[in-house]
């Protein structure tokens, strides 16, 4: 079984492709409609961040298993400008794009686990996980 | 060629039912189409039904919020109907309240609300 599928984010259409991929995997894993919506929305926000700030990058959707638990992990990677102040971007209401995205705090609330690794010049790596309850 | 969202006229109101997942361009095209249609038909009310929409991200929320304010500038009131439970939950968790937006459970109640708002 293929446990990871990826979509390259280069243009707006890739945002649609990434969230469709995520929704399909979420359905396959047996997530309910609310969690499917959470996952789809989180992917859309992360893919849009890549498109807006980094120009291009990649969204991968992984099926993960930990003990008896199954989950879905979104991995969003780009080699864009990176984020200099991680604490600032994790604050509600912070935006550099004039309020277009709801930002990373929103994505964090939608998912169960949220890890971000970023530094200026090297890009950003985000892992967001939702566990099947 | 991209499909456009149909905008129907019913008396002095416009009816829109969004039936499929919106991509950015379709959403922006809809914004423009709706404003032109309001201008063309002198409609004073609009109902946008989202029953078939199973998620709304911050971009689509912004486009919707903007088109509601733009319509208001032109003199037309907008009611949003049919927001699904999953959509309401994710929008609030995401931090988007769509405050001051008129909403109703379904199309029927939306039209009633619009009539009340327009004082008819």
UniProtKB/TrEMBL annotation, chain A:
<keyword id="KW-0418">Kinase</keyword>
<keyword id="KW-0723">Serine/threonine-protein kinase</keyword>
<keyword id="KW-0808">Transferase</keyword>
<feature type="domain" description="Histidine kinase/HSP90-like ATPase">
    <location>
        <begin position="35"/>
        <end position="129"/>
    </location>
</feature>
<dbReference type="GO" id="GO:0004674">
    <property type="term" value="F:protein serine/threonine kinase activity"/>
</dbReference>
<dbReference type="Pfam" id="PF02518">
    <property type="entry name" value="HATPase_c"/>
</dbReference>
<dbReference type="InterPro" id="IPR036890">
    <property type="entry name" value="HATPase_C_sf"/>
</dbReference>
<dbReference type="InterPro" id="IPR003594">
    <property type="entry name" value="HATPase_dom"/>
</dbReference>
<protein>
    <submittedName>
        <fullName>Serine/threonine protein kinase</fullName>
    </submittedName>
</protein>
Automatic annotation (TrEMBL), chain B:
<protein>
    <submittedName>
        <fullName>RsbT antagonist protein RsbS</fullName>
    </submittedName>
</protein>
<dbReference type="InterPro" id="IPR036513">
    <property type="entry name" value="STAS_dom_sf"/>
</dbReference>
<dbReference type="InterPro" id="IPR002645">
    <property type="entry name" value="STAS_dom"/>
</dbReference>
<dbReference type="InterPro" id="IPR051932">
    <property type="entry name" value="Bact_StressResp_Reg"/>
</dbReference>
<dbReference type="Pfam" id="PF01740">
    <property type="entry name" value="STAS"/>
</dbReference>
<feature type="domain" description="STAS">
    <location>
        <begin position="3"/>
        <end position="114"/>
    </location>
</feature>
